[in-house]
Amino acid sequence: MPKTTLQQRLVDALVATGRGTIVPSRSRKYITLERPDRSFFYVGRNGALRFGRTVTDSVAAPEDFKRRLLAETER
After folding, report:
1. CB contact set of 31 (below 8 Å; sequence gap of 6+)
2. CA-based torsion, 66, 67, 70, 72: positive or negative
3. Which of 14, 23, 24, 57 has most Cβ atoms within 10 angstroms of its Cβ?
4. Phi then psi for 36, rounded to 5 degrees?
5. Which domain of life is it from (predicted)?
6. Residue 21 reports pLDDT greater than 70
7. Cα angle: 23, vertex 46, 64; to 5 degrees
8. The whole model's pTM is what?
9. Pair 72, 16: CB distance under 8 Å
10. If you classify domain 6-73 with CATH, what class do you get?
């Protein structure tokens, strides 16, 4: 059984905690999830996590946010 990628683990964690829902995206570089406040999370192939209204205007999420998010869902 192949190991789950960091990208997939982050997407699963965001969906499981109710922080985002997967939406269709024009970007081939990121998986896009819509946040409850109508902005977006963008998850890259190597586990890059960004948030904002657009990919261009998005900012990188802090490493501790990613770490806490994964720890919260792996329990």
Report:
1. 7, 11, 22, 25, 42, 43
2. negative
3. 14
4. -60, -25
5. Bacteria
6. yes
7. 90
8. 0.90
9. no
10. alpha beta
Which pLDDT score is estimated for 1?
Answer: 66
Round the CA-based radius of gyration of the chain to a whole number and report it. 12
Query: Domain map of the chain by residue range?
Result: 6-73
Cα distance between residue 9 and residue 19, in whole Å: 14
Span 37-58, pLDDT tens digits: 999 999 999 999 999 999 999 9
Stated length of the chain: 75
Q: Could you tell me the pLDDT band of residue 2, with boundaries at 50, 70 and 90?
A: confident
Collapsed DSSP state (helix, strand, coil) of residue 69 = helix
- CA 22 to each of CA 2, 13, 29, 36: distance values in angstroms, whole numbers, following the listed order: 23, 12, 14, 12
